[in-house]
Structures
1.
Amino acid sequence: MDFDIQLQSPNWVRHRHAIRWSFGMGDIRTRLSKKSCHGALMTMPKSENTRMLESSAKRARKGRSRLARNSNENMDHDIWKEFPEDLLEAVIARLPIAAFFRFRLVCKKWNMLLTSQSFIQECIQKKQQAQSWFYTVTHEKSYMGSMYDPSSKRWYHPKPAVLIWAPRRLPVASAGGLICFLDNGDKSFYICNPVTRSCKELPPKSIFVQSRIAVGMILNGHSPQSGYKILWVGCEGEYEIYDSMKNSWSRPGNMPSTINLPLALNFRSQSICINRTIYFMRTFPDGLVSYNMETGVWEQLAIPSPRHLSDQTLAECNGKIMLVGLLKINAATCVCIWELQKMTLLWKEVDRMPNLWCLEFYGKHMGMTCLGNKGLLMLSLRSRQMNRLITYDMKSRDWTKVTLGRKVKYIACGTAFQPCLTALP
C-alpha cells in the first residue's frame, strides 16, 4: 500500500490520537509530580539554619523601613548645628554648577555663603572647570534671561540681578564667568555673574556717542581674580578701555590714519579674542579690525566674504579665526563654517550642516543669530514657519538639536560664558 494512503487510514488516525494523548498524560503527570514535590518540601520541618536566615532577613527589612521613616523626618538641629563651617564649604564647593541654583534657595545663610571670602578661596583651590554655557534673551520678555547647559541639555531660568532687569540692557560680551551688559539707551555698562547674581554698574564713559558701538572683553590674566578689561569702539573711530583693577575708563590714543573711517561694523557679530588681540567684523570693505591690548596697536585686514553669504558672525577655535553664516543659493539655505587662512587671508569652508537638516529650510526666508564664539556655538534659526535651535562643537564638528524650553520660544540675542562661582564684578 502507498505511504500517502497509509496516513489516511483510520487505524493510523486512531494511533496518532493515542500518541498525542499519551504525551498529554505525560505532561500532566510531570506537573503533578512537581506539584507534589513542592508540597512535600513545604511541609518538611525547617532546619535551624533556615530559621536563622529568615530572622536575619526580617531584621534587615525592618532596619531599611526604619531608615526610610527617619529620612522623611527633619534632621536634628542640635546635632547638625555643630557641623564645622569649613567642612561644609569644602563639600559645597565640589557640587556641580547647576546645583547652586537649588542650593541658594535653601536658606539665607546658604545664599550668603556664595559671596563669602572663605567659600571663594575654597572654590579657587578646587579650580572647578565647567563647559561653556549660553546666556540667552528672548523677544517675549527681553529683560528675562535664560541659561542653557549643553552638557546636561537643560534650561535654567533664575531671577536676574536687579541692575540688569531692564528691557534695553542686553549681553554683548563675556570673559571669565562674567557677562558685560550694555544699555542701548544711555550706553551705560553693567558687569554681572549670572550664576551668583552679583552685579555692578561701571563708571560713566568720558565720551558720549549716540550711534551703536561694538564691545570686546578680555581677562588680564588666566583667572577672573586677575581682573578684566572692556573695549568699546564707535563707527567714527572713538574708543575707550575700562580696567577693572583701576575702576576707570581711559583712552590710550587715536585710531591711526590707516584705518578707513567711518567703520561699518557688523553689530550682529560679537568680537573674539586671540592672544590678547580683540577682533571686530566690518563691512564695506569686508574684513576685520583688531586692537592689541598689550601694544595698543590698531590694524585692519581686507578679507572678502564668501559669495551668497548672510547673517555672518565671527568665532574662534583653538586660536583660529572662524566664520559662521547662512549660505543662500536660490531657494536652498545651509549653515556653513569657514576658517581664515593666514597666508592667503581667504576663507576656506571646513564644515556645513547635514543636508537632511538643510532640507527643512528649503524655500523659507531663514534668519540666523549666533551665540558663543569659543569652540561651542548656539545657532538660532528662524522664519515665519519654523524655529530651530542647534549647537555646534567646532572641535568635534558635532551638530546637535536643542529642545526649546517652556519659557524659551526663540532667541533675540545672547552670549556664551564660562560659569564660575569665584568671578566677581
Note: The mean pLDDT is 79.
2.
Amino acid sequence: MRSISLFSWLIAVFFSISVILASGQCQSDQRRLLLGPKNSFNSTSLGKLVNWNKTTDCCSWDGASCDAGGRVIRLDLSNQSASAPLPNFFAEFRNLTSLRLSSTGLTGRLPEEIPHATTLRTLDLSDNKLLKGSFQDFPLSASLQTLVLSDTNFGGQVPESIANLGQLTRIEVARCNFSGPIPESMLKLTQLVYLDFPSNNFSGPMPSFSSSRNLTQLDLAFNQLNGTIDSTKWSGLSKLVIVDLRKIKLSGTIPPTLFGIPSLQQILLSQNQFSGDVLPGLKSLILSSNNFSGFIQMTDILKLRNLFILDLSYNKLSIDGSATNSTLSSFPNITTLKLASCNLTKFPEFEVPLQNFTSFLTVIDLHGNQLQGPMPLLPQYATYLDYSNNNFSSFLLEGIGNYLSVAYFFSLSSNKFEGSIPSSICNSTYLQVLDLSNNSLHGPIPHCLSQMSLSLGVLNLRGNKLGGVFHDAFPQDCMLQTLDLNGNLLH
C-alpha cells in the first residue's frame, strides 16, 4: 500500500510540474524587463500596467503573453498614453514575436534592433506622431509578417533589402515622411496581402507588384510617383479589392486587365494624367481630373449595374445621354453621380423619374454642362444637388422644398430659371447652402428664408429680378455667413 501511495504521490507531482510548465510561469528576468515600461510610462495613465507588480506572475499581466518556458513572446500596450521616449529595453526581449505599441504617445527614435529582431513577426507602432525612425538594411533572417507604422514620423528611403522580408503580408506606412523610389525588390514580396503607402513623398516609377498574387489592397495615393502602371501584370492579382492611385502623376493608358479583376470593388485614379478609352465594370469608379478624352454613350455606362459611385468629372470626355432607353433599374445601387464638365447636352433619360429613386441616390453633381429644358425632378433623399452652370429654363417646382427634406447643398446658379421662388423652399430645413443666383427669377423673396438662417450658412440670390422688400428679421442665433442679394430690384 505504501508503494502505491508513493507512486500516486509521484504521479501527482509530475502532473503539477507539467501544469506549471504549460502555464508558462514568468521567469525573473522577464519580470524585471516588463517592469521597465511601467516605470518609464506616464504614471497618471498606466492603463493595462496598473496591476503589474513583483508579487504576481508576469505571464498573467494584462497585455503580456508568454511561451511554455515563461518567456515573453507578445506585448500589447496600445492606447496607454505613455507620453515618453520609446525605451530601449524592448529590444532585450529575445523571444518576442509580437509588439504592439500603437497610440501610446511615444516619442524619440525607434532602436534599430527592434524591427531587426529575428523572432519578431508583428510590429505596430502606428499613431505615434512624434516617434521617429528609418529603415536600415533588413537581415536575411528577418521574420516580420506585419509592419504598421502609419501616422508616425518615420522617414527616409525604403531599402532594397526589404526583399529579405519574405514572409511579409502587411505593410502600412501611411502619412509618414518616406521619400525616394519604391524599390523594385518589392517584386520579391510574394506573400504580400495589404500595402498602404499613401501621403508620403515617394518618387520615381511605380514598381511591379506582379508577384504579390495575394494582394487585396494597393494604396499609393498622394505621392510623387510617375510613369505608367503597365509594369504590373494585373490579370494575375485575382484577389485585389481596392486600388488607390490618386494624385501621383501617372500617365499612359489604363490596362484593360485591371478592370477585369473579378474581386475588384474600388479603383481610385483621379488627379493623374491617364488617357485612352475607359469602360470599367466596378462598384466605385472615380476618374475625375484627368485627361481622358473621347465620346461615351450613356448606354455603355448603364451596363455597370453594380456601380455605387460614378465620378467622371473634369476630363475631356463627351457623354451622350440622348440614346438611352433605360429605366432607373439600370443603376439599382447608385449613391453618387458626378458628371461635372462632361459636355452633357441632354439630361440622361435614366434619371427622369428621379422621384422614384429614393433609396440610394444622395449626391448629384452635373454642373458645368450644356443641359437644357425643364428643371429635372429631384430624388427625395438627396443631400447634395448641383445643377449650376447649365441652360435649364423653366419655373421652379411649386413643391421644390419637399424634395429637399434632407439636402444640405442645392445650387441652380447660372441657368435660365424663371418665375418666383416657391415658399416651399423653406421646408428644406437642413440646407446649409442655397444658391439660385444668375437666373431670371422675379417676385418677392419668401419671408421664411430669413428664418432658415438657423441652419443656412450661404444664401445667394444675386443676379435675378427679385423685387419688393426683403424681410431681414433674422433670429438672434443666426448662422448665416454669406448673403448676396446684389443685382435685383429690391427696395
Note: Residues 390 and 432 are 22 Å apart (CA to CA).
3.
Amino acid sequence: MKHNAEPDAVYPLMEVEDLDMLMEHVDSTCFKRTCLYLTSAARYLPGSDDMLVLDMAYMIYLKFEECASANALQIAHCSLIICRVIAFELDEEMVPDDEREALQEIINYTKLSEGYLTLAWILRL
C-alpha cells in the first residue's frame, strides 16, 4: 500500500471479507493509517463484521509491536462486547429497586471514566 491508498485497499477487502490479505501488504510506513481506517470503519459495520475488523487492527498492531495501541484497542473491543451484552432497557420487574440504579449507571456509562482511571492506576500508566 503506497501513496496513502489505505482506504482504496482496505475497503474492497472488507467488502469481499478477505481482510487476512492485509497482513502481508501492510508495512511499517502505513500500518498506523491502516489501523486507524479499520477502527474508524468498525463503527459503521454490522455486529459480527465490526469484531472481525477490530481483530484485524489488533493483529496488525501486534505485528509491528505497538503494544499500547493494541491494548487500547482491546479495551475498546471489550467495552463493545459489554455494551452488546447489557444494551437493553431495564424493566421494573426485572431488577429490584436497590440494584436498578447501579445497573442503570453501567448501561449509561456514568462511571466509565472512573473505571479507566482505576485501570490506568492498576497498570501504573
Note: The chain has a mean pLDDT of 76.
